[in-house]
Amino acid sequence: MAKRDYSPYQQGLIKRYYDNLPQQTLGKLAELVTELYLAKTDKKHQQLWGRVEKAMAKIKVPKKIAEHILKQRKPEILAANLEDWLKKGVRPARASQSSKA
């Protein structure tokens, strides 16, 4: 793949995109919590939990916390952790290692 030379303006856009990626992903997780509460079929639940897993990996949620959330598969647990992450205003990787059960 050829190396690209980006203008300073483009570099700034790219930097801001990646700087805001964790907040965007947390917003998507919040939307997924709502969708999980409203989902009626097992197939839809499986699809949504797959998206939750990918989103948590994207923002580097500690493995232990992600495993706990995915094992329980309760939107309440995801919502409680998400609320904590949003309150702290930091990436989940920097959040405390304890998960709410």
The major sheet is characterized as:
none
Measured distance between first and last alpha carbons: 46 Å
User: How confident overall, as mean pLDDT?
Assistant: 86
Uncertain regions spanning at least 5 consecutive residues: 94-101
Number of strands: 0
Secondary-structure content class: mainly alpha
Strand content: under 5%
Based on CA atoms alone, the radius of gyration comes out at 16 Å
Number of discrete domains: 1
Discrete helix count: 4
Helix amount, in percent? over 70%
The rough form would be described as elongated
| H/E element sequence | HHHH
Verbal overview:
- This protein has 101 residues and is mostly helical.
- The protein has one domain (8-94).
- The chain is built from 4 helices and no strands.
- It has helices spanning 8-38, 42-58, 63-72, 75-88.
- Helix 1 runs antiparallel to helix 2 (42-58) and helix 1 runs antiparallel to helix 4.
- It is elongated.
- The termini are far apart.
Task: Report a brief summary of the structure.
This protein is mainly alpha-helical. It is built from four helices and no strands.
